From TrEMBL:
InterPro entries: Beta-barrel_TonB, Beta-barrel_TonB_sf, Plug_dom, Plug_dom_sf, TonB-dep_rcpt-like. Its main location: membrane. One of its GO terms (cellular component) is cell outer membrane. Keywords: Cell outer membrane, Ion transport, Iron, Iron transport, Membrane, Signal, TonB box, Transmembrane, Transmembrane beta strand, Transport. It is a multi-pass membrane protein. It is found in: Cell outer membrane. GO terms for molecular function: siderophore uptake transmembrane transporter activity. The keyword Repressor does not apply. This is TonB-dependent receptor.
Length: 764
């Protein structure tokens, strides 16, 4: 099958409403809704690399998988899935950078978690069904709200009010007991002024990996008023997810013997043998978004956008832990049959309760030769973290209901203001300038969930973090429309970014994390004429103190990052598309890149011969350093390519999407036994649209994922350790400790083989 998949690589390398009876109202509403495109988006003459993805493009793929997978055909994009089937916990990388440095907004409002900087798509399942379109900007991009874009930004716009009433049902069912049901309704325009839309979605999948199930529910509701020059919209959307943990990867040997094995939730006997799995090893979270949008046309040249927002989140994850040291959980050792029991199995629950609110605005001016925007935002975030022990095996001491063993609170205030100008200096030549000032303050107070064995007496690590940052992010560029078919652009940008919560809490024993700075150079060319379009973009992203993933994970499976003084990402992105006939189209893109850290030193955790940590006298876990030099950045392939062949003929539509990704390193030590192998995967989609009496349209189809049954892994993690002789667990490292050897550990997340979903959409 691998030969067939590679051959494919080489060979190939919703509703649209026309309401004539409401034509005047429709044109007015469409014009007003265009105002809703918040000024953080790039336009045709903005000198940055970007890709627009339309509602129709999303709809043709939206049968259950998360948004990252719907964007996998765009340049320089990689996707990952813990459960292996693209539903549940998924993530996205752009130009090798992970989700914590990809700025995501909806209607200009930040979606990234203010502490982790990540975007958890699982919390808002099926949001794609309520999007009008989205834009991916690669590189620093334009000024935006929230955490800075350090590799890309994704700007999503929710759907507008349609002029006529409608209803739609879509459903799918297929492999791994995966199914999705979505119902959408809309009133159309009422008296030419008012409109309402609603959506309900339900998604379930058992997952490719054992017990890696996902139960996802979501909704979207909006109501809008459309005056002659004013739009006011209230939008609320949210979701609730319950997923069984699939956070731990598998060693190579396990992959060969049992690819679907899931070690999470394992219950072990005294000898460490797995005797069962905990049923409630789940992650639960609910998230609700509220947005109030005002769009005002002030004159023929000036427009105003104001948005107020609030996001409420609450959730927890529960897990079974084997042979845990009781004092680490605030529990007293107990005696049984004359023996003091210091370790026991237990079930813990870690909870978060967050609120995020604020406002954003922009004044937009459009003249004959000058486009300008002034905007900004102010947001406040608070998140309470705490952990509870809900059960202890054979415990004879006093255990209060929901015994709490740690608590801390994170608070963040984030404000920014920006000004943008795009001026047509000469006929076809535009100059672009963009300046942003951003100030933020981040505080964490309380206790961490980790135990400090080096303290006397030992105790939970205290968290007393109070940091503030001031960032100036200038950008400048030039766009040259050479003629109606050829365009050339160049830009230079500076971006700054603060550390995440995990950068602090995972490195309490090491040097405090530093803010990052990036200098982004972009040079691009596009050609578009008739049936053919093409483009090339060259980029050089020079980082100072970049926080890069070192291949290790923290206790809940989140990647750990570290500052590296000097590093860079450089590459060339090629895009081309051809309308071969009026019913056949072929689009391709490819990225060649070089991603390197200069003068890298690896830090190895010191362990004894049983793999247990050894501690230093003053810096927590003892470490041994190893100089590597210039080395590839983890999770950054040197080459990747996409091909999309699409056919649309008399109601029949088909597409074949193929993606090739070269080898990736799991850490920054350039070790061949810690890599993800290259892979090539193809997806085939077939559909047919027809009309039935009483319905506007019916679409039926089937999508086959991983058509050639490629065996591959798109994500993993790795760590290195230095093994020393003669230490017990939690012992302090001796000055004359004998070094034995280094040891590497690598684990992988398997992706599903060939699988399929059948789907149907009924439009009323």
């Amino acid at each position: 099958m691998r030969k067939h998949a590679m051959a494919a690589c080489l060979l190939t390398a919703t509703l649209s409403v026309c309401a004539q009876t409401h034509e005047k109202d429709s044109l007015r509403v469409i014009s007003l809704q265009e105002v809703e495109i918040i000024s953080t988006r790039a336009t045709g003459t903005t000198p940055v690399a970007f890709t627009n993805v339309s509602k129709e493009q999303l709809k043709k793929q939206n049968f259950g998988q998360d948004i990252p997978y719907l964007l996998s055909f765009t340049p320089s994009v990689l996707t990952t899935s813990d459960a292996g089937a693209g539903i549940g916990y998924t993530s996205i990388r752009v130009r090798g950078t992970d989700a914590t440095r990809i700025n995501v907004t909806t209607n200009g409002i930040p979606m990234n978690d203010a502490e982790s900087h990540s975007i958890f798509w699982v919390n808002t399942p099926d949001l794609a069904s309520s999007l009008q379109d989205l834009q991916i900007q690669r590189g620093a991009g334009t000024s935006t709200n929230g955490a800075g874009a350090f590799g890309a930004s994704i700007n999503m716009k929710t759907q507008g009010i349609l002029p006529t009433p409608y209803a739609e049902f879509s459903g799918s069912y297929g492999s791994f007991n995966t199914h999705k049901e979505t119902v959408k309704v809309g009133t159309g325009l009422i008296n030419g002024r008012w409109g309402f839309d609603a959506r309900l979605s339900n998604i379930h999948s058992d997952g490719y990996r054992d017990r890696a199930s996902a139960d996802l529910k979501s909704y979207f509701v909006q109501g809008g008023y459309y005056g002659d020059k004013t739009t006011i919209k209230f939008i609320t959307f949210g979701g609730k997810e319950e997923t069984y943990h699939a956070w731990d990867g598998l060693k190579k040997k396990v992959l060969e013997d049992d690819r679907t094995y899931n070690p999470n939730g394992a219950i072990e006997d005294a000898q460490g043998n797995v005797i069962g799995f905990y049923d409630n090893q789940i992650d639960y979270y609910r998230q609700t978004h509220y947005q109030l949008l005002l769009n005002q046309i002030l004159s023929s040249s000036w427009k105003l956008n104001i948005a107020l927002h609030y996001t409420d989140g609450y959730g927890y994850y529960e897990e079974y832990k084997n042979r845990r040291t009781l004092v680490e959980y605030g529990l007293t050792p107990f005696e049984t049959n004359g023996t003091t029991i210091e370790k026991s199995d237990l079930v813990r629950r870690k909870l978060v309760d967050s609120g995020f609110g604020g406002g954003i605005f922009s004044f937009d001016y459009k003249g004959n030769k000058l486009d300008a925007s002034i905007g900004g935002g102010l947001n406040y975030y608070k998140n309470t973290h705490n952990g509870k022990v809900v059960w202890v095996k054979n415990y004879l001491g006093e255990l209060a209901p929901d015994h709490e063993y740690y608590r801390n609170i994170g608070r963040k205030t984030d404000g920014n203001i920006y000004a943008k100008v795009n001026y047509e200096l000469l006929d076809g030549v535009s100059l672009y300038a963009d300046m942003q000032y951003r100030y933020l303050r981040y505080k964490i107070n309380g206790n961490n969930d980790k135990w400090d064995w080096t303290a006397d007496p030992a105790h939970l690590q205290p968290l007393n973090i109070d940091e503030d940052f001031s960032f100036f992010n200038p950008k400048a560029g030039i766009f040259w429309k050479i003629n109606p078919y050829n365009n050339l652009y160049a830009s230079f940008s500076v971006a700054n970014k603060e550390p995440t919560r995990n950068n602090y809490t995972d490195n309490l024993f090491a040097a405090q994390p530093k803010s990052e700075r990036m200098f982004d150079y972009e040079l691009g060319y596009t050609f578009r004429k008739g049936w053919f379009n093409a483009g090339v973009n060259l980029y050089y992203m020079d980082y100072k103190n970049q926080l890069v993933l070192n291949g290790q994970l923290n206790e809940i499976g989140e990647p750990v990052a570290e500052n590296v003084k000097d590093s860079y990402r450089m590459g060339i992105e090629l895009m081309a598309g051809a309308r071969i006939t009026n019913w056949l189209r072929w689009d391709v893109n490819a990225t060649w890149s070089r991603n390197r850290i200069k003068n890298y030193t690896e830090y190895l955790s010191d362990v004894n011969e049983d793999g247990e940590n050894i501690y230093s006298e003053s810096w927590g876990i003892s470490q041994t350093t190893r100089y590597i030099g210039t080395t590839p950045i983890s999770f950054s392939p040197d080459f990747m390519a996409n091909s999309l062949i699409s056919l649309d003929y008399k109601g029949f539509n088909a597409s074949l999407q193929t993606q090739y990704v070269s080898k990736q390193y799991l850490n920054n030590a350039h070790q061949e036994d810690c890599t993800l192998d290259a892979y090539c995967v193809s997806n085939l989609n077939l559909g047919y649209t027809f009309k039935l009496k009483g319905l506007k349209s019916v679409n039926v189809g089937v999508t086959v994922y991983n058509l050639f049954d490629e065996t591959y892994e798109s994500n993993g993690y790795a760590s290195g350790s230095a093994v020393y002789e003669g230490h017990g667990k939690n012992q302090i490292k001796n000055k004359d400790s004998k070094f034995l050897h280094t040891s590497n550990y690598a684990a992988y997340y398997p992706n599903a083989g060939i699988n399929a979903l059948a789907h149907i959409t009924l439009s009323f």
